[in-house]
Specification:
Length: 265
């Protein structure tokens, strides 16, 4: 049996954007794939394209990771695999509006998808990876926790969790040959913003130099994973924005709080 057939990868949120780009990248490296998302037709199209281009086996799982029955199915699949080497937790979504205004159901669903689902899938994958003493886990976070602004409360909160979770997890598994990364992209050209939630937002006002392609984000992420970079912000511009302007964003947020008379403690 070839080495290619001995390794597999799972990618969630693989029907577009960073998830699709990661599926194509690991396939190009010879990994067989299980791709997961809610849009079965789109997954099947991607699976067919990947199989034809790279000659790997691609399985499709139509799942809503906020649904208990569906996530149980994915956990069972992971636990049954003896060759899972790569897990990409990418599934996610955003909302528009302040925490007080956003529907609570959406906020709780975000916790399910950004926090609970990755934790459960990593928990299912770790025993096998630890036993084989090799593996790679990428939890797709965001640059947004480094730049706190109004209207992103739950998104920033759940994505911040993925950063802290990944950092601490890497410490626990570093001697077992397992690499963990919290990928923190900035503005990325994906289908993330092309949903009903953001239909009235004009993203063309965001300067072109702030945007990256999903393919480039994934390419840089994989290279950084090989260099054992745990918290990775792809792109020089995004990295500088997060590091140089982090204090400014927090200062402005504090000034706005003071101006509105909101008390913090």
């Amino acid at each position: 049996m070839s080495n290619r057939l001995m390794k597999s990868a799972i990618v969630t949120g693989a029907s577009s954007g960073i998830g699709e780009a990661y599926a194509r990248l690991v396939a190009s490296l010879g990994y067989d794939l299980i791709i997961i998302a809610r849009r079965k037709d789109r997954l099947e199209n991607i699976a067919g394209e990947i199989e034809r281009e790279y000659g790997v086996a691609v399985s499709v799982l139509q799942c809503d990771l906020c649904n208990e029955k569906d996530i149980n199915l994915v956990e069972e699949k992971i636990r049954s695999m003896d060759n899972l080497s790569v897990l990409i937790n990418n599934a996610g979504f955003g909302t528009l509006g302040t925490f007080a205004d956003v529907d609570l159901v959406k906020s709780l669903r975000m916790i399910d998808l950004h926090v609970t689902a990755p934790a459960r899938l990593v928990k299912a994958a770790l025993p096998g990876m630890l036993a084989r003493r090799e593996g790679a886990i990428v939890n797709v976070s965001s640059a947004s926790p480094f730049l706190p602004v109004s209207g992103n409360v739950m998104y920033n909160g759940t994505k911040s969790y993925l950063i802290a979770f990944s950092e601490s997890l890497q410490i626990e598994v570093k001697d077992a040959g397992i690499r963990v990364q919290a990928l923190c992209p900035g503005f990325t050209r994906t289908g993330f913003h092309s949903v009903e939630e953001f239909k009235n937002v004009d993203f063309s006002t965001i300067p072109a130099f702030l945007w990256m392609s999903a393919d480039k984000v994934v390419e840089l992420s994989w290279k950084a994973l090989g260099k054992k970079k745990v918290v990775f912000i792809p792109g020089v511009v995004t990295l500088l924005t997060c590091t140089v302007f982090n204090g400014l964003f927090r200062y402005l947020a504090g000034k706005r709080t003071a101006a509105t008379g909101t008390r913090q403690r």
